[in-house]
Amino acid sequence: MPAPRPDWLDLVREPTLEPDLPICDPHHHLWTHPENRYMAAELHADLTSGHNVVFTVFVERTCGYRPVGPEAFRPVGENRCVEEATGEAPDSKIALAAGIVGFADLSLGDRVRPVLEAHLEASGRFRGIRHACSWDPSPAIRNAHTNPPPRLYLDAAFRKGFAHLAPLGLSFDAWLYHPQIPELTDLARAFPDTALVLDHVGGPLGIGPYAGQRETVVPEWKAAIDALALCPNVCVKLGGLVMPANGFRWHKQPEPPGSERLAGVLEPYFHYCIERFGPDRCMFESNFPVDKVSCSYNVLWNAFKRLASGFSTEEKTALFHDTAARFYRL
After folding, report:
1. What residues contact 327, with CB distance under 8 A and at least 6 apart?
2. Minimal CA–CA distance to 230: which of 170, 180, 281?
3. Is 6-327 a domain of CATH 3.20.20.140?
4. Which of these, 129, 136, 131, lies nearest to 177 by C-alpha position?
5. Whole-prediction pTM value?
6. Centroid of chain to Cα 75
7. What is the structure's pLDDT at 292?
8. Please, which of 175, 224, 236, 321 could form a disulfide with 198 given CB 3.0 to 4.6 Å?
9. Does residue 242 carry a pLDDT above 80?
10. How far apart are CA 233 and CA 165, in angstroms?
């Protein structure tokens, strides 16, 4: 994964649009990669770059796993890592990682129940599980860090584990690529009482065999979104589209995109999701620091505000704050 380049990002600076609009950022990570550290100080610097962020939600990324003990329980250590890290952030009115989405191997089936209970015991902020299934047969596509097999969300053992989420009051984050969206739709239909959220508008790919194929990819993605949107237990995160895998190659340009340019490229995807799901099931997300490889935090949220400029005050409140706050019980 390419590391963000601060000097390159500084080539484009903008005044903040609608600086008083409350924001709940429902998707960011923390990590200590040697060449790409992103912990509380780095997160706080982005959150205070102009926009009125009041809540954030941390989403799993192998941060602070327990180094010893049973393998299945090691991800529980992420809760403590996040709470300790955010507790060290500068004084702020922002509720950093007010919700925590962790990892548990749901393919353990019924054996995952004590792991989920350990997560809940470890942190009062714990809200749900993300078990990524992003997988593609092409060697040019990087599969998820969880090393998923093909068709994970259709697997019987995985579904036995998944069945324990709703009884424990937990939600599910789904990270996949666009050809896999029908697998999530099948899962959502099978578990109508479980709250699910589709990360990164379903990961429309633009590299490897999908490079230069938007005329094929976008209609396939739209058809899959149409079917998924019929599941009332599913929400969607509007973001994660400036990663290298999406194929826009922002990180390869002489300078980063401004918010107007970003909004123009993102609009067909985001507005389609809002049209199909409605603002009360859509939430803007930063996906930082992953998306920071392509643009700054301030520019990204300016782009989101440009995209939402035609919506009512009530709809904008849902898109920027209320949908996320409700979904993650903040």
Report:
1. 26, 171, 195, 197, 235, 283
2. 281
3. yes
4. 136
5. 0.97
6. 18
7. 97
8. 236
9. yes
10. 13
